[in-house]
Task: structure prediction
Amino acid sequence: MSESERDLEALGARLSAARRDVEARGETFYPGPSRVHLASFPPKERWDDWVELDSKSWPNRVEKRYVLVPTTCFNCESACGLLAYVDRETLQVRKFEGNPEHPGSRGRNCAKGPATVNQITDPDRILHPLRRSGERGGGRWERVTWDEVLDTIAERIRRALEEGRHREIMYHVGRPGEDGFTERLIAQWGVDGHNSHTNICSSGARAGYHFWMGMDRPSPDHANADVILLLSSHLEAGHYFNPHAQRIIEGKKRGAKLIVLDTRLSNSATHADFWLAPYPGSEAAIFLSIARHLVRNGLYNREFVRRWWNWEQYLGAVHPGKPRSFESFERILGELYDEYTFEYAAAESGVDVRTLAAVADAVSTAGTRLSTHNWRSAAAGNLGGWQAARTLFMLNALMGAVAVPGSTYPNSWNKFVPKPIHLPRHPRHWNDLTWPDEYPLALMEMSFLLPHIMKERGGRIDTYFTRVYNPVWTNPDGLHWVEMLRDPEQIGLHVALTPTWNESAYFADFVLPMGHSSERHDLTSYEQYDGQWIGFRQPVLRAARERLGEPVSDTREVNPGEVWEENEFWMELTWRIDPDGDLGIRPFFESRERPGEKLTVDEYYRYIFESSVPGLPEAAAGEGLTPLEYMRRYGAFEVARKVGPLYEQSVPPDELTGTNVDDLGRVFTEAPEPERVNVVPLPPIDPDAQGRRRVGVRVDDEVLRGFPTPSGRLEFWSETLVEWGWPELATPTYVKSHIHPDALAEDQVPLISTFRLPVQIHTRSANAKWLNEIAHTNPLWIHPRQAKTLGVRTGDLVRVETESGYFVVKAWVTEGIRPGVVACSHHMGRWRLKDGPGHRMATATVDLTADGQTRRVRRTGGGGAFDSTDGDTGRIWWTDVGVHQNLTFAVHPDPISGAHCWHQAVRVKRAELEDRYGDIFVDLARSFDIYQEWLLKTRPASRHSPDGTRRPYWLLRPVRPERAAYRLPETKEPAPV
Amino acid sequence: MSHPVELIRSLAALAEAPAPEHERLCRLLGFPPPPGAASHTALFEHQVYPYASVYLGAEGMLGGDARSRVAGFWSAVGQEPPADCDHVSNLLTLWSALLERADGETDPARARLSLRAAEALVSEHLAPWVFVFLEAIRGVVAREGGRSSFFHAWADTLEQLVWGAAPAGGGGLPVHLSVAAELPEPADVGGEAFLDALLAPVRCGMVLTRADVTRMTASLEIGSRVAERRYTLRACLAQDAAGVLGWLADEADRWTQRHRSPDPAVSAFWKDRARHAAATLRQAAVDASAGIAT
Result:
């Protein structure tokens, strides 16, 4: 050995020893992950005192010192990890970057995450509680104290509860941003008053998944797939866009084929190996043609289908005369979908036969590594849209690509909702304003019909909360919402909980400033890969001060102005509603550590992290931290990885005592259910006649966990749909959309209005200057062929006539849209009333005028530069803020899923002489007629319920009343059909 | 010798932009203190590019066939090639990872496989160019009076490390070198293509840094255009073609003395390339003096 070699060995040994020492202290030896991982983050041991050069001082080298505090983004559903850079001198947030400790987002963010800093420094943000001082919608406000607000609301709610007016309390949420906190709170109040936005969003897709597997969201494992099939735009927008996009790209880098169905040339479509631009609404026909190809050519996973589909139940019920063998089922399956040839699908979709065949071939080569995803898109656009998700998942079910690597998992197995300190009771009342008789199978509340139902049936809500929700702007037929919100006979008190002004808050009685993602506590968990994690949102200034040794007991002490967080708000409000505990509400927010005293947020989360998150206490102890300290320091924790196919899990013998196996192989047991700390919502499955709980299903002589469906298997055939009056839809099938060519007049075309802009966030990004600079308008996409026929060019004004009105918008002539279809994006067209409040960054000032049953909105001023405390607002160079098209859409509730069917049949014309950009016209009488026309499509529970209940008990429901409340009333008023 | 995995990894880390952890690494290695970000950028972004493809590619640029070959190696050992898979830091990290894998392997056959992969990485993708790259660094640093600098220490240690691990010959030329075209005759390809080839080390056997070009203009007392090297050289040729070509021939001659490698075939390859370049350039200088256009 030469002299120099000895030196190198000694150097290596010295380095190894030093590395061991450094890493034993929990510190980072090398500067961040190596280049192999292409990422670099501040080492976590330096998060207390991180030094960077101040960019604004350039070229001088001025050091800034930061405390880095993790939180969770609140700007879409993904809940990506953020790292707030809190300036140690000013104790203000300087910027947000990604949190490398977050298992879902892994340190990466889209534009919306860092833009949080725009939102918290927005010069127009609401900083104090406000009370209306003139008539509702009049635009005059006065500051009030939180005490006045709390006392007023608490007194009203208490009185309503004492008088049995439980139906008159409603909490209407847009972006939940948390897992069950508010559902549990509302339930504990004894109120069936939870109302979500979901039926204008994902209910269609959820229904498709729910009827198959008992769980209502897909969790695709894109990173390990061989074929990725998207009925969505997940490389640019949509739920879990950032966590999914990075994994789709990983899959592609591994060689996966990407297939995208999108009528527009979306960013996702540009990355696809196969881009299919079908006629909107025809997607299910395409999926069924692929299914037929797989079945007819024996390319599906026979063994999986045999083991896990409920084919025996189907044969017994639908083909009782046929042999109850799998071979018999296979023959029937082939016949059932025989009409869905590639030629048929091509005729429906306009996609050529050769492409469809190539896509089917690609799917057939995936084996079990087929990841598919649908969230809104076609499922949210069309009558019967839920069948798009149902037929899409059928491909997974055929290939056996369910909860195995590279496939699609059910969400509930990739999600962890820790059991909280107190679980609520079930409300005793059923709220038929949100769960009306006509929609017994709707996955979520019929939220967008609220004004119509109130108008038709004379409803009243005493106290109505809108929380991070803006139904006037977001929902279809928003001017019906304005009518309802303005009417004190219908809405007694409207409380808008919102960090920013919005079109619904203009019509509130109280506007209460709530925190953005760095100003509040929440706990989240979302299905983004085959694992389970929790993410902790926290007020970062509070956490920073506490880290620097300054205790904070109320988040208002550190938030700007009097901005509060909701956890503390709800705790305080609940105590004021029930100060003595005589309503049974207060115990829900009582301390366990200090009986009789109010629960604090610290104790609430301390309990969860110490008691309900397996592995967290040990991980924390490993770093000398308590579980709460660990979560405050790192912001996220991965509870499990590679959960796998839980349906294949054997039921352990100690759960199989006193069992009963029925003729469908469902196994019921007398053994009590083991305690769960993961309280992720799952369908409640009825016990057998002797009260034994269902524990699994027998498959080939083994008792396995199975699926949480009535049959315990994947439900190719739904007994529920048959029993509740929809036998023709009991198996996955193709429902022709309300905008199918057969349903359109010759001069009508479909309008797609569901797609998002990648950098916008429904209504809450209007105060994010960086995002607005990138995207601030929503022209009408129109193909050159159609544009030529109409004689319009890019930038020309066109009038788009819907069933109940019209809007005037600029044309964008592009080949990025299928000929014969037009499209206009969501997110844009924000407005504020003349002389009223509102943020000025992305809104137009409008006049809202009434003439009998017609309404007009005309802008009197556009966006543009303005003076404020933020110098950048004087540099706003754009004035076009888009057009609020949703006002002109009548409601289209799907009779089964309850989802609003967003696509519109429209006539596109050159604008008329009197038309101005942004004009809106709506005939409320006509839009109400359309609501009633769609009601005719329903099959109400009062006429079709097989068991005298309002709804199948096993279907998921955000707040579940007690079982007795499910009974239909003895004397049911006739349904309005 | 056993494999100093940690040393390899630390040298990989030290090739990155300076971070606070570098101070500790330098202390442990007995190196001078790490450079500031500006010095790091000046050397690795403006003078001596730390990518295999720059030294082994026919274009003397990032990417191309040379990087594809490196990427192929990453894939062959089951790693997803990063975007800059031929960066010296990435290659060293991969080397350390393969050695670590071998150390952690309980199956002797699989351990041998990992060791072989590590040896192949060194012989095929590091040793063919890294000595040329380190020599270029030493040249730039020395002329800036930095013989005792961090970069000098880093380059010396890395050279010693790779030298000890590289094959001593007998295995034929690595593919990168065996497929590399020679410097063309200017008369055959024209002035532009010839100029391009002069900036591809694998073709001309020398590394021309910006500092070298500046040194040339000072020596010839001609004007230097501040631009990328191609543009600057073109401007210099327009002023004094014979002088420039003659200086470049001398520089190539100097490089024949600078090349070394534990593998005589590799060393001979680089020396031959430099010698051939010197001859070609000298003839071109003569032609230029005589007014013969190239």
Remarks:
- Chain A has a mean pLDDT of 94.
- Chain A touches chain B at residues 1, 4-5, 7-9, 11-16, 18-19, 22, 28-32, 34-36, 38, 43, 46, 253-254 (CB under 8 Å).
- The longest strand of chain A covers residues 63-72.
- The radius of gyration of chain A is 28 Å.
